[in-house]
Amino acid sequence: MSSGIYSGFSDIAKQAMMQPQESLLEVKSKKNKLYIGIPKEVSFQENRVPLTPLSVALLVNNGHDVMLESHAGQAANFSDKDYSEQGAQIVYDTKKVYEADIIIKIAPPTPHEIEMMKPGQILISTLQMATLKAESIHALMVKKITALSFEHLRDEGNILTVVRAMSEIVGATSILIAAEYLSNVFEGKGLMLGGITGVPPTEIVILGAGTVGEYAARTAISLGAEVKVFDPSIYKLRRLQNNIGNRVFTSVVQPIVLEKAITTCDVAIGALRAEDGRSPCIISEETVSRMKRDSVIIDVSIDQGGCFETSEVTNHTHPVFRKHDVIHYCVPNIASRVARTATYALTNIFAPILLDIGDMGGIKNLIWQKSGVRNAVYIYQGQLTNKHIGERFSIPCKDLDLLIVSHR
């Protein structure tokens, strides 16, 4: 083949390679510059922060401004210096942070925080339906805020992406907490979680075969414990069994079988969730009173009321109490116990969304193109779009799709 043909091929190749770059340059010129504010969390024992310093660097390198309230990342062991080195602007006045176009935080905004928000802002935070008040919704609507609840964000596989990430963390961490409270250090029974040669393993009962239950079972099995998982749904049990293998005992909720398992186990983990409202309370006080002395209950579902009749909300400062000689751990926010890991999990979800808002020329285009993000919107430019909130507080609700079309 002659050299002329070769050079002809190379010219065509060069042209082909140049085209995407030119089209990329065109897209970049349409980008919106974002002004992102990260306030310090004021909610009790909330140690997580939505973005890590490296995610801030990614946003800054893409031409966006990030403003962080001083010490916002301290509880997750990220210093102001870590953020400022990556291009974040550190501010000491909370009101200054609320001048940003986009506010991203973990806990829902308090009435005082909503007061500081400016009209037309974008808010990304949790919604926490259990503690939601009508006044907060009305205050956000008056300010024409566009609000997204990240517990309703869905990924490409239609999975609740933040809920899934936090559930994985909570499931694995609950077993590590159980291991601590079984040991002598915390006045437990003095057991090692997994068995060793000649010593039988500890028995763990997990109520619920969702993500929390699955990751609790994985961690317990890997530490050598004997695991039994109960759930009313045979579909969920089958999925868990397929994901983990035959080393786990599964059963639908049959009172006699469940009662026997609870009264003979060393650790019981409550991870049954309700779609809306209260989690099913399936273990009576009478059953708890017959559990082995110094056994451990970890009620992960306590934020929805709990699976055990004896459960009462505790916190990270005073995490346990004893009832019927059983150690109860009922902290609602277990992910804050490993705040740095939780922050890494969250930043992997939020940073791409923020970049998309910039790349697509605004939140409206992102909502229009990505159904997973659209699912998380509960107020759009001051109009309530979540029918559950509307029904609960008797607030008129609008169809989000129609609102976006009318604003396009």
Automatic annotation (TrEMBL):
GO terms for cellular component: plasma membrane. SMART domains: AlaDh_PNT_C, AlaDh_PNT_N. PROSITE patterns: ALADH_PNT_2 (PS00837). Gene3D superfamilies: NAD(P)-binding Rossmann-like Domain. Keywords: NAD, Oxidoreductase. Its EC number is 1.4.1.1. InterPro entries: Ala_DH, Ala_DH/PNT_CS2, AlaDH/PNT_N, AlaDH/PNT_NAD(H)-bd, NAD(P)-bd_dom_sf. The keyword Cell cycle does not apply. GO terms for molecular function: alanine dehydrogenase activity. This is alanine dehydrogenase.
